[in-house]
Design the sequence.
């Protein structure tokens, strides 16, 4: 962060002066020409010096080295020897650290090689691998048996499902047949009901006609009965008149017989 602030300050000063900026790599005195366009001007020259490319990442590494050595990055330009000494000290420290790490790596490599060449370790590893393989084989056999059981169960369930589907299909067919028969029966019943309704209407009409005829016959009978009563009365009157006439005839006969006798 401190190196970035230094870069920004240096680039700001160069921009304010209106002159090409100096490369912000610590210790570099090269200038960075201003690029055409409106983009941000470059801060590093991009040259490779003593195997190091002058760019932002390597500049940050160099500033870190100088900071660990206690050297101000601005002194790297005016005191290149001091900067080089600081860099060398840092590199020596890092080399010592790398040497120690290399020694540790060598020890670990030797130990690994010894383990690789050890028959006991190889036998133990082989035995462990054999036991692992046996356990894995047993597990695989158990899983295969379980899978076979599940497959058989699935096959049985599938067969049962097929049988259930066939039964359901047969029941559906029977239900459709029963529905069709019921529909036919309902149609026949509706037709019979319609015929019965027509017959009932005809019967009611016939009864109405019979009722009308009965009423007419009753009226005729009542008139005939009244006429009979009247005729009976007339007959009675005529019978009385006949009897009276007979009496008179008998009286006349008696008188004629008496007249004859007297004559």
Sequence:
């Amino acid at each position: 962060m401190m190196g970035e602030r230094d870069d920004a300050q240096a680039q700001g000063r160069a921009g304010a002066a209106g002159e090409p900026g100096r490369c912000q790599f610590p210790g570099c005195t090269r200038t960075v020409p201003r690029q055409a366009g409106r983009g941000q001007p470059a801060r590093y020259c991009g040259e490779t010096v003593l195997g190091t490319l002058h760019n932002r990442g390597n500049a940050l590494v160099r500033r870190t080295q100088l900071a660990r050595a206690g050297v101000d990055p601005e002194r790297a330009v005016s005191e290149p020897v001091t900067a080089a000494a600081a860099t060398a000290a840092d590199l020596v420290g890092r080399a010592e650290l790398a040497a120690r790490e290399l020694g540790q790596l060598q020890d670990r490599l030797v130990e690994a090689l010894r383990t690789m060449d050890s028959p006991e370790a190889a036998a133990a590893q082989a035995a462990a691998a054999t036991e692992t393989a046996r356990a894995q084989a047993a597990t695989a056999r158990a899983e295969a048996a379980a899978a076979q059981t599940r497959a058989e169960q699935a096959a049985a369930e599938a067969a049962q499902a097929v049988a259930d589907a066939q039964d359901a299909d047969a029941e559906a067919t029977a239900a459709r047949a029963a529905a069709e028969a019921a529909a036919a029966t309902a149609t026949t019943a509706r037709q019979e009901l319609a015929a019965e309704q027509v017959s009932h209407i005809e019967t009611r009409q016939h009864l109405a006609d019979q009722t009308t005829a009965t009423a007419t016959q009753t009226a005729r009978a009542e008139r005939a009965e009244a006429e009979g009563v009247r005729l009976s009365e007339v007959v009675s009157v005529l019978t009385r008149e006949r009897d009276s006439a007979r009496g008179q005839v008998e009286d006349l006969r008696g008188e004629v017989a008496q007249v004859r006798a007297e004559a």
Notes: The two ends are 200 Å apart (CA to CA). Confidence is low (pLDDT under 50) at residues 1-19. The beta strands are 21-22, 31-32, 48-49, 52-53. The CA atoms of residues 172 and 178 lie 10 Å apart.
